Amino acid sequence: MGSVQHAESADTAVFIPTPDVRRGGIALEDHSIVMAVGGWVDRPYHPLPWEPIYLAQEPMLRGDWAAAVEILEREAGEHIGTAVVQFRLACCHARLGEHDLALRQLRRAIDVNPDIRERAEMEEHLAPLRDLDGWAAAVA
After folding, report:
1. What interhelical angle do 83-95 and 50-62 show, nearest 10?
2. Which of 53, 58, 78, 139 suits 125 as a labelling partner, its CA being 20 to 30 A distant?
3. Rounded mean pLDDT of 113-139?
4. Helix-strand-coil percent breakdown of the chain, rounded to 5?
């Protein structure tokens, strides 16, 4: 078990040099920010599949589905074909009324990761697709 380190004042950084140590941060005061930075020693940083989804979260929460699609498509890069990005794009396109495109992206997401099928059955953003003829084929 690693040692516990405390940041005693504002603007404090804690460096943990051992990458295999489980790390965590807890803000003890309201309006505190805990930030983690990491990467690989032997290669340049590259984004992970969840990062474009995080960037698109704000417009999704506002219901600005077109802005969310634009962010996802622009920021996904090499992760555009991952199940999680295709699933979020399907949600956005379903909300935009672009049902055929949403069904195709959902099918791609399930092809990459069949576990997405169960998530799709529960996802409220995909509700507009469930009564369509193409729904059964998309989640098959």
Report:
1. 20
2. 78
3. 95
4. 50, 0, 50
